Amino acid sequence: CPFPQAIVWDEYLTGPFGLIAQYSLLKEHEVEKMFTLKPGRLPQADVKNIIFFVRPKLELMDVITDNVLREDRGRSPQRDFHILFVPRRSLLCEQWLKEQGVLGSFIHREQYSLDLIPFDGDLLSMESESAFKECYLESDQTSLYHAAKGLMTLQALYGTIPQIFGKGECARHVANMMIRMKREFPGSQNSIFPVFDTLLLLDRNIDLLTPLATQLTYEGLIDEIYGIQNTYVKLPPEKFAPKKQGEGGKDLPTEPKKLQLNSAEELYAEIRDKNFNAVGSVLSKKAKIISAAFEERHHAKTVGEIKQFVSQLPHMQAARSSLANHTSIAELIKDITTSEDFFDNLTVEQEFMSGIDTDKVNNYIEDCIAQKHPLIKILRLVCLQSVCNSGLKQKVLDHYKREILQTYGYEHILTLNNLEKAGLLKPQTSGRNNYPTIRKTLRLWMDDVNEQNPNDISYVYSGYAPLSIRLAQLLARPGWRSIEEVLKMLPGPHFEERQQLPTGLQKKRQHGENRVTLVFFLGGVTYAEIAALRFLSQMEDGGTEYVIATTKLINGTSWIKSLMEKLEPAPF
Amino acid sequence: LKESKRAVNSLRDIVDDDDDDLERVSWSGEPVGSISWSIKETASSSTSSLEGRDSSLQKGSSSYAAFPKQVSSYSLSSLFKGRNKLPSFQSLSDALSDTGVKNYAPELRRPKAEYKDYSSDWSPKDTVRRMQRGKVCSLERFRSLQDKLVLLDEAVAGHDGNVITAVLIFLKRTLRREILFRELEVRQVALCHLIHFLKETGEQKLLLDLLRFLDRTEEVALSQYREHLNIQDVEKRREFLKGCIGLPFSAEDTSHIQDHYTLLERQIIIEANDRHLETAGQSEIFRKYPRKASILNMPLVTTLFYSCFYHYTEAEGTFSSPTNLKKTFKIPDKQYVLTALAARAKLRAWDDVDALFTTKNWLGYTKKKAPIGFHRVVEILQRNNAPVQVLQEYVRLVEDVETRLNLATKYKCHDVVIETYRDLKDRIQLTAYKCKVERGSAEEEKINSILNN
């Protein structure tokens, strides 16, 4: 091949790209080598073209500049550089490269518009980690523009969505952009029969509470404890040591065990959205079934029966290893959920969410600060208290601030300021606490929660029903008109738009056929919220199925982290 | 859980552990052939071994289908088949192989389509639209202020931050500062983008000018304060923080910034002093417990801990004494006691611990008091491996009977347990506790004598 290529990857991108392409595919396109982007000289490789796959971030541009400047000019043949921005070409970055004097080294500068990446059969994410920060802290609406573009692509493939509902400032923007884009490209009117009946756009900042609480579904807990990245999770290896005979634990793996988690795995699909307390019984039931299946071999008498048994073996073995993995994961999680600190933390969260003692300094939080628990944990709790009290009393807020700064360092004043700007941590200004009204009207706190056989979405947080999902649920039935008062208490406008369909494409619903709603979370969504929507999809008399899209899959920790001021100067 | 674990383990014996064929996953869990797996692979191996891999990749192609089964009856996976990623990859590599050709014929270097952008006369609207599609456009022909502002407004209406920023870069270069600021003041969205972009690129001076122009004094202050993070040299950092004190922060923040400066000033003095002490080797405490890190830039509570550890007995007049720190920074009693307790317990200085909770009233009687509650004291002491004799003294002081019993049982403070049951006149529990103490020990005797009375 005359022009072999090498790709230099921004490491963050390998995850999302891994979900849509394999190396073999790239290899068909003459990609010979792949490297991770890091400062210094690029590795040797006998290739003609070097392509950088990067996000448009200035700090990455500095690394690239370093790579290019250190390239050996004398080598022959000379290597050509190209840059591919994901998801968008950035003129700011190009300007930056120009100022460093390396822009001319790039023969091609292109973009690869990767707007929405499929994560599962019913889940799409833009994996834009800073979307919330950009929208609510920096008033940069670029990610909303991408969201609107992604929605246009989705409509081009699955038909125009006739109804759009939304709540929040950003939701309004996205809807406006969609309408505008449609007007500007009249050719985009397609003749595809619409798959989705409704689009629901929700701002993250109408429900700041939900991500702060600890998720209690199986998948949610895996994410809270180990962090799921692009459907993969890295786990401590000890519990996964191979127990084969003759190996007697001689080489215990030290590298973390990496597992992919999605609904392709039958067992995982069944347990991922359950409350963790209901997972154990499913696992033991599964274990019995598999044991019984393996026992069958003793009853296989004829050759035909044996053959049938053997043909089922691969499936059974897969089920067995899946069961082994999830049993190990469940054990790991159980160690944590049964710890005293987890219990204390959860108790305080639940007190706040049910409206107990939200207006005074909390003892447990003070204790955690005194023992120097991780700062993010403290911030999550304090923010949760603030949100559940529509802002803290000035005296309480000042007290927390002082304790945090004295214990963790004064420079965190910048982070506290960001949280304040985002509305997560603030003084109570109006003098009135709206949260109790919202909680009662939307039934956010349910005292009798059934974790084993849930009858309400509140099972995902063992009592708290995520506000965002309640809004989706109430929209489907009986409609938002019934909760006008509460909607007004939440920030931003709520609205409804209709997109005209050509007469031939209007849906004639069969009796009993479900409506399909696409819920787009602007600023991120948690696994527990996804679980709650899936629960609603599966309700017998629900009448609505949900497909979920988001700017980023988040949990309280990753979310707060994205809002924290970077205190370390960049390493290069 | 235990049940399923047992089942899994028992199954291991039944099945030949030959599932390697099933899981085409390397130990780190990356499916063989995935991108991140290959990065490691190609970075380390030569081409020849890659060819070897190839055959295994083909075999593994059955696991290629990365698409999961749907949960709902709707399947996005089937829907997504229409959305093939291949074409764009195709065009990318096409484009790249093209470049090879172009490289040999440099005069063709700029593709025609791109060239056209420079010559034709796009309206502001079209320009913005082209830029949104990632095309390069020349903005130079927008000369008048009027034109430039129309261009900016169009960009803002498009909501694409990339384009807005590009136009702002152009305006920043071609407009006088006062005019730029004035026009942005009435264009909030564009203004936010400029502020964000100045922060990103570190154009601190222009940023501060802009914020001052807008009268956003608190932001000016915070933004200036943020700068200290980039100053590595402590002396310079201290000087810089000193300059921050007068900045227009909110009242509450001002006191924090003042404290930050004072703290660093203290740390510099303490550090110089202690480094000297340590190298001289005269001070026993530094010889016995060499410092693990410098105290510079540590939080206040950490500094207090340090001073309780190394400088506990110093008079209030010295900068490094704990009481001086407590006074200067108005550290609350609770915080102070917790920190001092942890430091002294770590040194196993039980007398100091005792003194920490002893108060004398005016008649000269001593009394034990703890602002943090004695159960917390016990926990901290226990974490520092305090001996039972010390521990039980504080367990005894826990007021709540139930907590006291729990702690005493947990940490085997037999005397306390026995005395508590005695006071409660609980014969049954006391009898039951007999089996928890050693046979023939003093404790057992004590129980017996109480029971006999």
Automatic annotation (TrEMBL), chain A:
Q: Which SUPFAM superfamilies match?
A: Sec1/munc18-like (SM) proteins
List GO terms (cellular component aspect). Answer: autophagosome; clathrin-coated vesicle; early endosome; late endosome membrane; lysosomal membrane
Listed A to Z, the keywords are: Cytoplasmic vesicle, Endosome, Lysosome, Membrane, Protein transport, Transport
> Membrane: present as a keyword of the record?
yes
- Alphabetical GO biological process terms: protein transport; vesicle-mediated transport
Task: List the subcellular locations.
Answer: Cytoplasmic vesicle, Autophagosome; Cytoplasmic vesicle, Clathrin-coated vesicle; Early endosome; Late endosome membrane
Where is this chain primarily localised? cytoplasm
The answer, when asked if Methyltransferase is one of the entry's keywords, is no
Classify the source by domain of life: Eukaryota
| Purpose | Plays a role in vesicle-mediated protein trafficking to lysosomal compartments including the endocytic membrane transport and autophagic pathways. Believed to act as a core component of the putative HOPS and CORVET endosomal tethering complexes which are proposed to be involved in the Rab5-to-Rab7 endosome conversion probably implicating MON1A/B, and via binding SNAREs and SNARE complexes to mediate tethering and docking events during SNARE-mediated membrane fusion.
PANTHER family on file: VESICLE PROTEIN SORTING-ASSOCIATED (PTHR11679)
Q: Which family does it belong to?
A: Belongs to the STXBP/unc-18/SEC1 family.
Protein name, please? Vacuolar protein sorting-associated protein 33A
Origin species:
Fregata magnificens
UniProtKB/TrEMBL annotation, chain B:
**Taxonomy, superkingdom:** Eukaryota
Keyword Transport recorded: no
- Which Gene3D superfamilies does this one have? Vps16, C-terminal region
- The primary site where this protein sits is cytoplasm
Cite the InterPro entries for this sequence. Answer: Spe-39, Vps16_C_sf
Q: Does the keyword Transferase apply?
A: no
Keyword annotations for this protein, in alphabetical order, are: Cytoplasmic vesicle, Endosome
Localization recorded for this chain is:
Cytoplasmic vesicle; Early endosome; Late endosome
Alphabetical GO CC annotations of the entry are:
early endosome; late endosome
Which biological process terms from the Gene Ontology are attached to this UniProt entry? Answer: intracellular protein transport; vacuolar transport
Matching PANTHER family, A to Z?
Answer: DEFECTIVE SPERMATOGENESIS PROTEIN 39, SPERMATOGENESIS-DEFECTIVE PROTEIN 39 HOMOLOG
Q: What is this protein called?
A: Spermatogenesis-defective protein 39 homolog
